[in-house]
Amino acid sequence: MISGVASLPSTPETLIWLLLPLSLSGILGGFLLYRARASARRMVAQARRQSARNLEAADKDAAAKLREAELAASERRLQARAEAEAVSAKNRDQLEEDRRQTVADRDDLDRETVRLAKLAASLGEREAELTSGEQQVDRTRSQLAQVLSQNRHKLEQVSGLTQRQARDELLKSLESDARIEAAHMVKRIEDEAREKAQREAQRIIGMAIERSASDYVNETTVSVVMLPSDDMKGRIIGREGRNIRTLEAVTGVDLIVDDTPEAVILSGFDPYRREIARVVLERLIADGRIHPARIEEVTEKVKAEFDERVRQEGESAALELNLSGFHPELIRLLGRLRFRTSYGQNVLQHSKEVAMLAANMAAELKVDVHVAKRAGLVHDIGKAVDREMEGTHLELGIELLRKYGESEEVVHGMACHHGDYDPETVEAVLVTAADALSAARPGARREVLETYMKRLEKLEEIASDFDGVQKTFAIQAGREVRIIVDCQKISDEKALWLSKDVAKRIESELTYPGQIKVTVIRESRSVEIAR
Q1: Which of 417, 440, 463 is the last residue of a domain?
Q2: Residue 162 covered by a domain
Q3: Domain check: are 303 and 327 in the same one?
Q4: Helices 492-509 and 449-464, packing angle to 10 deg
Q5: On the CB side of 34, how many CA atoms lie within 13 Å of its CA?
Q6: Which of 4, 41, 339, 440 supports an S-S bond with 514, CB 3.0-4.6 Å?
């Protein structure tokens, strides 16, 4: 570059042309700087004027706000002064009212003081009178004590008893009278309670029987099968009796072929097997093919059909009573009861009636209807297996119900129906009563005449063993025993206890359906002849 500059021409014109741009740029820069400074001065002046105007406006605004604040403060002072004056006026009025009330109270107090003074004077006079009266009473009491002492002394001399002895005699007399009165009262209450309970029980039982009454047909241990002709008897017997032996072996019943025209008799204690034998024999007669192989084939088919029929019978019984939730095995056992009898009474029909009676009585007494009905239906469930297993039908029934998931309330109600267990629930009592009602109904069961006569004789014998008994009579088919006693030996109170003792002995020594009423009759007769 130095070499470049050094190479430039150094003439004046050349220097002028070289310096001319520099001069022009300097002049232009100075002009622009001047203009910028002038603009800045104008802007500063304008800002100062604006600031002055703003300050002036702020001063005016502050003065206006100051005046407004002074006016508001003045108004508040005036309002506070007015409120203070109002409160002061109110306080003055209240003070004036209090002053007037105080004056009135002082006047009342003065009047009350005067009244109390008068009352105190009157009380003083009354006290003096009472003191005088008390002294007079004391004198009178002393005189009465002397008179009583003299009278007591005279009474002791006349009666020969001291005061303590006379009091003891009086207490003994009162105690004896009280005991007699209490005995009469207890007897009256017991009689009233017994009559009321009897009426209520009769109403409930009558209502239950009326709602569940059903007809019974006594079943026997034989079935009669009608034949188309007497020639069929020989075919039933078979060659050398092989058909009849096979039939008896596979069915378990006895086949009686006698002189009865066009009929054979099936005999057996098990209604289930007897019914199977009847159906088998009727089908063989209708089919016409009677030989050992055919007998066994038809018997197997009928037994299979009866298993289904048993299930249907059990389901029908549960459905009829609107009960559910039974184990399938319990349903089958219920169906087996259709072919089980007790004293000629069908056990399934008896169980359904017991369930209905117990349910009706439970509804009337507002207890658990479901438990009573369920326990009534299964109360004889043990009779379905008691001919196949060891034990009483009660023990077997308890075991079966617990095995197949029945509740303890139902098991307890079933277990108590023969009195082997003490009932702890009302439902158990109702099942027992319903079982007795169903079994003891006229026509429901048949009883051997000899057993019936022995029971009546034992009833009269038990009652006759007691002292003071003159005659005994078993009446109403053994449902009541009437005892006639000697009125000289048996009092009314003893007659009451005699009936209880006879009833307890009957309960402990006899077995009987239903209940037995014990009636003790005590009467005295006076006879005279007019001539």
Answers
A1: 440
A2: no
A3: yes
A4: 140
A5: 6
A6: 440
- How buried is residue 303: exposed, middle or buried, by Cβ count under 10 Å (0-12/13-18/19+)? middle
CATH number of the domain residue 295 falls in: 3.30.1370.10
436, 455: one domain: no
Strands 480-485 and 345-346: unpaired
Distance CA 432, CA 380 (A): 12
pTM, entire model:
0.45
Give the pLDDT confidence of 127-158 residue by residue, as tens digits.
Answer: 888 888 888 888 888 888 888 777 777 776 66
Interval 231-276: pLDDT, tens? 888 888 888 888 888 888 888 788 888 777 778 888 776 777 888 8
Residues 216-229 as b/e (b if ≥16 CB within 10 A, e otherwise) read beebeeebebebee
Categorize the per-residue pLDDT at 217 as very low, low, confident or very high, splitting at 50, 70 and 90: very low
Residue 255: phi and psi, rounded to 5, are: -105, 115
Burial class (CB in 10 A: 0-12, 13-18, 19+), 485: buried
How far is 466 from 40, CA to CA, in rounded Å?
Answer: 151
> 60: which 2 tokens?
């005016």
CATH number for the domain spanning 481: value is 3.30.300.20
Reading the block at residue 396, the tokens are 């077997």
Residues 48 and 40: their CA atoms lie apart, in Å, by 12
Residue 113: C-alpha distances to residues 100, 103, 110, 489 (Å): 20, 15, 5, 85
- pLDDT score, position 290: 85
Closest CA to 222 of 274, 284, 297, 151: 274
Percentage of the residues of the chain whose pLDDT score is greater than 70: 84
Same domain, 361 and 426: yes
CA distances from 485 to 188, 214, 497 (A): 21, 41, 13
Whether 333 is in a domain gets the answer yes
Separation between Cα atoms, residue 329 and residue 400, nearest integer Å: 9
- Which 3 state secondary structure label does DSSP give 129? helix
What is the number of domains present in the chain? 3
**What interhelical angle do 242-251 and 292-320 show, nearest 10?**
30
For the chain, what percentages of helix, strand and coil (3-state, to nearest 5) are there? 70, 5, 20
